[in-house]
Write a structure and sequence with these properties.
About 35% of the residues lie in helices and about 20% in strands. The chain is of the alpha/beta class. The chain has one domain: Rossmann fold. The strands form two sheets. The chain has a seven-stranded mixed sheet with strand order 3-2-1-4-5-9-8, with helices on both faces. It has a two-stranded antiparallel sheet with strand order 6-7. The chain starts with a helix and ends in a 6-residue tail after the last helix. The N terminus is likely disordered. S-adenosylmethionine (SAM) binds next to strand 2.
Length: about 350
């Protein structure tokens, strides 16, 4: 059942856009992301998706993946968004929202969907987002990488992705260099301490081809407010004393982290955009082109970086003598009278 608010908004929905035609010569090899004005319906039943989109603050009017193209098979081991008995609509909204975020990132990076031929989902989990990547980029080769081997196997057998088993030691992750046009990193750094961010950013940059785009997500100000209890309290799986540790460090330094109980090196992080941008700026090959507050699923912040190994031409410096001369001019030159 749609809520009365959803029904009211639905009544004002613009005319249903047409689905992307796939068989003709003009469209051949192109991604649905290349045709935003031709976007089709998307995800689950229309009612559920529409209501979910409203709940999450997304506009399904701009979605570009047709519902029929999204593979619905779920792994029995999928844990994301899972409740005791079911996968609520949030599961699907998260996948769809990732495509929304990626689309915005590609626009910021001046890339078209058809330029994206090789995609890495890192970490893929059990394909919550990969199923949407497959629908959004039907022409692209997908690679699925995670520590969870059954997740990688599932993504390989159900979505046809190239399977890559990850490693706790970043240096040992068997991913080739310069191979990907797009890397989606959904909710990995959100679980790692700052020293591991460095290692992963170096690794991800090395896997991107020159001009490729890495899109990653973080917990930012909105998650901070929820952990703090200012908005809709969220304990994020940590005991109260570790929540305090995360909050205190975030308030002091813009970054806070604590391990989950019983885990070592895996927990919950929150990071302010200033901290994230300063961290990115230390990587010469990565140029940040987008930061979106709560850009994924109305919860996690989204950053997009383009890999650029070409040396930046040194600007011709403005001579100090000219600068001083022009400052002095302000003093000695009589001001024009009106
Ligand atoms: C919160 S889940 C997100 C999964 C998926 N991106 C999604 O949105 O459904 C975090 C994932 O990170 C994976 N992970 C943690 N450390 C990793 C590593 N070193 N290499 C690859 N995956 C890792 C975990 O196995 C888990 O599947």
């Amino acid at each position: 059942m749609l809520s009365s608010r959803a029904l009211a908004l639905r009544a004002h929905r613009p005319e249903e856009p047409r689905s992307v035609a796939t068989g003709d010569r003009w469209n051949a090899g192109r991604s649905p992301l290349d045709f935003p004005h031709q976007a089709g319906r998307h995800c689950l039943s229309e009612e559920e998706a529409y209501e979910g989109g409203l709940l999450m603050g997304n506009s399904i009017g701009i979605l570009q993946v047709t519902e029929k193209d999204v593979i619905r098979t779920l792994s029995p081991n999928e844990t994301m968004n899972r409740t005791d008995h079911d996968f609520p609509v949030e599961y699907w909204v998260a996948g769809r929202s990732a495509i929304d975020a990626i689309r915005t990132c590609l626009v910021s990076a001046h890339k078209s969907g058809s330029e994206i031929q090789h995609i890495l989902d890192f970490p893929c989990g059990h394909g919550r987002v990969l199923r949407y990547l497959k629908a959004a980029f039907p022409h692209a080769e997908l690679t699925a990488c995670d520590l969870l081997r059954d997740g990688v196997d599932f993504c390989s057998s159900v979505f046809g992705a190239i399977p890559v088993y990850s490693d706790e030691d970043v240096a040992e992750i068997p991913l080739g260099e310069n191979g990907y046009d797009l890397i989606w990193v959904g909710s990995l750094l959100t679980h790692l301490d700052s020293d591991r961010w460095e290692a992963f950013l170096i690794k991800l940059a090395s896997c991107l081809r020159d001009g490729g785009v890495v899109v990653f997500t973080t917990h930012g100000a909105s998650v901070y407010k929820r952990m703090k209890g200012v908005e809709n309290f969220y304990n994020c799986g940590l005991p109260y004393w570790r929540i305090t540790k995360v909050l205190y460090r975030y308030e002091q330094a813009g970054f806070g982290y604590a391990d989950y109980l019983g885990a070592h090196g895996y927990g919950f992080s929150i990071s302010a955009p200033q901290w994230v941008l300063s961290t990115i700026s230390r990587h010469r090959d990565l140029r940040c082109v987008l930061y979106a507050d709560r850009g994924w699923h109305n919860l996690q912040d989204v950053y997009a970086c383009v890999k650029s190994t070409k040396p930046v031409k040194t600007e011709i410096a403005t001579p100090l003598t000219t600068y001083v001369k022009h400052l002095l001019r302000e003093v000695w030159k009589p001001k024009p009278t009106s």
